[in-house]
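Batch manifest, entry 17 of 40.
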Amino acid sequence: MFDNLTDRLSNSFKVLQGKHKLSEANIKDAIREVRRALLEADVALEVIKVFLDQVQTKALGLKVNEGLNPSQAFIKLVESELTQIIGGENESLDLKTQPPAVVMVAGLQGAGKTTSIAKLALYLKERENKKVLVVSADVYRPAAIDQLEVLAKQVGVDFYPSTINDKPEKIVASAKKHAQKQFFDVLLVDTAGRLHVDEAMMGEIKALQNKVNPIETLFVVDSMTGQDAAYTAKAFADALPLTGVILTKTDGDARGGAALSVRHITGKPIKFLGVGEKIDALEP
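Output type: structure tokens
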């Protein structure tokens, strides 16, 4: 996903080739090129500004080690700052609690939320050897409940039935009680999405979060939405105590901008990447 961004950044470093030392002038030129590369990658403007301010401040005080030319030293600095945003090693789900570990999944309609839950259920079942129960608390779309039931059968995990006449809090409480009785390790909760962020949606999902008190609250976002992903992420991060992000459709986004933006704005790790339409196309 970051190959294209890496290529763009590599081109931006060419302005330092042949320079014997880093100066305010050539750092400014390099920063301008890095900014262009990040804009082309559709990184959010707010993130670009913060990132470049940090790079410029550190570059001006950078002492170039022997064996490194200015271009290499600057590249090393930029890579270090990018790694700080994205994070180093992958962070796994925290399921260390009295079973069932409740994982709530939130996001806008169309982001791939319900499909991501099925992919996550399969991942936990096959790679973590967990007994998984899934439930839909989306009382606005009967199709979402039906979709999750179909996907649950497809991946071979249990589905807890719900209807649009029930309250989301009641659905999840009942599913959790069932999960406890039947010794499930994990309960995955699908929540209602909207076509856009609105106050009513956020109020409902906050109420559900407070009632359910999940050990993990994951935000699902479509990587193809670019800068919009950052603004959506901010709205959800302000409303919910997010613990991580599932970034979907990354196989179709070669730019990598959404990942940088969402990670920076939420301050939470990207725990999974959706890398294709197949039900097992989920990578930690």
